[in-house]
Automatic annotation (TrEMBL):
Highest taxon, organism lineage: Bacteria
Active-site residues from the entry: E52 (proton donor)
Domain CMP/dCMP-type deaminase: 1-123
Protein name: Riboflavin biosynthesis protein RibD
Transmembrane segments: none
Amino acid sequence: MEPIQYMRYALTLAKKGRGTTSPNPMVGAVLLKDGKIVGRGFHSRKGEPHAEHMAIKEAGSMARNATLFVSLEPCVHFGATPPCVDTIIREGIRKVFIATPDPNPIVNGRGIKKLSEAGVDVEVGLCEREAIELNEIYNKFITTKEPFVILKAAITLDGKIATGTCQSKWITGEEGRRFVHRLRASVDAVLVGINTIFVDDPLLTTRLTRGKSPKRIVLDSDFRIPGDARVLGEGCIVATTSSQKRRINAEVWQLDGDEMNRVDIGALLREAGRRNITSILVEGGRDVYTSFLKKRLVDKFYVFIGAKIFGESGIPSVGDLGIRSLEDALDVKYTRVKKVGGDVLITGYPHF
Ligand code: AOF
Ligand code: ZN
């Protein structure tokens, strides 16, 4: 097998931590000795061993002179666990392939440097693109202290998110909805606007797949949420500008208002970041999409195009963004277009 195949295996192991490592990254490690895999590991959650530790533990004395494949630069700090570089050096690992440096300011190249200085042969960049994409949430959070924002929408072929009578169940088929539940299991929080609560009364939990349910944030500037909304309960957050004191089964964040006295999205993201929410899945509706796009606070798009047409009376996916000329349009770079059941899923990143 080629080195790239071992690194791919390390990336596969890393993904076992999806949805549970936050605020830490997903990391996988493989130890190779005389052509045989003698250790493997992944980081499962904060406080649990780092991937390298797990792989080295499995290998035991076989770690000496072995080659390590790790999907993220080994750490140099005493955190929940001792520095991985020290263990690698102490155990006599001869060569280390690292997919990508750790952007954490307390690591950021220091791990690579320390290993090289100790005489370990270090190679960086194998499967780098995949490794960076795998931890796109972590990479933003660790460098900005703000969550990675994913805008997810299900639209018709003519760009509508509901009929004129506000019906939207369902624009996509079962497979698309299952994909969304997997997304929910992989993020720290989902977010919807108060109109969505009024119209759909959603639960916003993870049900169509195994995995944890994220926190549920309701953008409710005027604090109008009904006391019996199904979204309420453990893990629900109501973000408002109102100073009203209401007993409600949710955490309430009173935040600064923007020029229209709606919750300021920038303030919301800063508050979420302070509370270690590293990712937010924005699930609509139109006004919420509009607010995030107006402020250019979207990091990634997942747009499902269902195989339906609603026509002019349907509700458009995004409201007015003040765009009048073509040069002002928001550009998006599509990275993946995929058929999911009978629908199309477009993955993209803002180019604005
Ligand atoms: C590694 N291997 O498997 C992981 C690393 O809270 P702690 O002590 O676990 O430290 C978290 C930081 O450690 C995290 O921000 C990142 O820089 C690094 N994560 N490093 O060598 C791993 N999960
Ligand atoms: Zn470590």
